[in-house]
Design brief:
Layout: E1 9-13, E2 17-26, E3 32-35, E4 50-54, E5 62-63, E6 69-72, E7 77-80, E8 89-96, E9 99-101, E10 105-118, E11 129-143, H1 149-155, E12 160-165, E13 174-186, E14 194-201, E15 210-211
Amino acid sequence: MATAGRKAQVKVAGSPVAFTNEPTTSLGNSMDFQVTAATKRVWDRTAAIVVGTSGDGGTTYTTAAAGTYTVNRLTGTISFLLPQLGPPLVRVSGSYLPLSVVGEASEYSYSLTAKNAEFSRLGDIYTSRAQTLKDVTGSLSRWYAADPYFTNALTAETPVILEFYANSGTAPDLRCWALVGKEEIKAAMDGLVETTVSWEGFSDTEGRMISLV
């Protein structure tokens, strides 16, 4: 069933907010855990993350050693390399990014791309390819507002986080780190002032650029 464009929305992140010993929920196994509070599942791109584990019902916690787990800052998820003893409890400390709707947004687009490098050899009948670098780019249009969010991000060379919804009543389709490359303002005597922002993907500390939520 087709989705009306008027239902779409875009969110951007505010300043980091510290959190301490935030509880998590198991994602159906003893290796993957996500912060329980939905509003705290997007973490600052570079802030230190401290993970504590308990196998005795929460009586005592031990700080998990670096290298024993991976972090997905775009979903607030910790994934251990080995199953945790338990039933395990996991808590996390760090900084999350509060998200708010871009109220003046009127249009958006994004494109996921990958470089498919050819490595065919003599004697091959068909072309062989391997996917190498991946990327995401896009643009966002909105009615002009006094909010300098994207202007500040551009001039300060600061990555931002963007969240796109094809339907504002459901989970986001894409969440990504972005670096603003251009902000264009256009005005006409018989029209409204418009702003168009172009951006490219940017990696966080773990090397992650996007999450298909």
